[in-house]
Here is the input.
Amino acid sequence: MKKHLYIFFVFLMTLVACNSTDWKKRPSSAVAEANGQYLYENEVRELTALAANSEDSAKLLEDYIEKWATEILIYDLAYDKNQEIEDQVEKYRRSLYTHAYEQKLIEKRMSKQVDEISIQQFYEQHKEHFILSESIMKGLLLIVPIDAPNLNSLRKDVKELKGDNLEQIEKYAYKYAKGYELFFDEWRTTSQLMVSVPLKDKVWQNQMAQNMYYEQSDSIYVYILKAKDFYRQGAEMPINYAQEEIKKVILDQRKVHFIATEKHKIYENAVKRGKVKK
Here is the structure.
C-alpha cells in the first residue's frame, strides 16, 4: 500500500508540475492552490492511504481538492468586511478565550471536594426536587428454569433472606440458575431490571411495596426479585441515590460563585494598577 501511495504522489506532483506552468512559486509539498492558499501533501496523505489503488486515490483526492477549494472560493466571494459580522466573530472569539481561561482557573484553583455535611444540608433543603422517576431497589435477582427442583424451598429462603440461608441460595443458584445477581450495595432502576426480568410494572411495584418480594414466570423461567431496600416511583430519592446529582449541582453553583469572585479580583487589581480608569 505504501509503495502504491508513493507512486501515486509522484504521479500527482509530476502531473501538477506539467499542467501548471504558471504555478512556479508553489511550496514543493503543495498539491493544490486556491486564491493563494495551499493544500499540502501531508494533509491528504491519510485520505488516500485506504484506497485500493492509485486510480481510487486520484478520485478521492480530486473530490477533496474540489471541496477544499470551493470553500475557500465561496468564502472569498462572500467576504466583504461586513462590520456586523466582524463584531459577531470578535465577540465569539473573545468568548472562546474567556471560557478557556475560566476552565483553567477552575481546574487549578477551585476545590472539587464536596463533603457529606454539604450534601446532607442540600438534600434536606431541596428534598422536593429529588423525586424518583422510576422505582429503585437493592437486593437480589434469580432466574431459574421453571422445572428446577425444590423451588418452594428456594422461595422460602429468598423471602426470609438471612445470612445463613444466603449461602444456600448461592449454592442453589450455582447449580440450577440461568441468572443470579446480588446487588445489596448498588441501586437498580426499573428499566435496568427489565433488561433481565419481564416486569409487569404496577404489579411488581405493588408486590415489592407490600412484601419486598416479586415473582413472575413464563413458559421457561421463574424470575425472582427480593429487595433489601425499595423505593417506589414518585417517592423522594434516598440520599445515597441522590448524592451524585447533588454533588454536581453543588459544584455547578460553586463554579458560578468562583468565577464571579475571580472576575471581580481581576477587575479590582486592574483598577489599582491603573489599567482601568473611571
Q: What stands out?
A: The chain has three domains: 2-78, 116-126+238-272, 132-231.
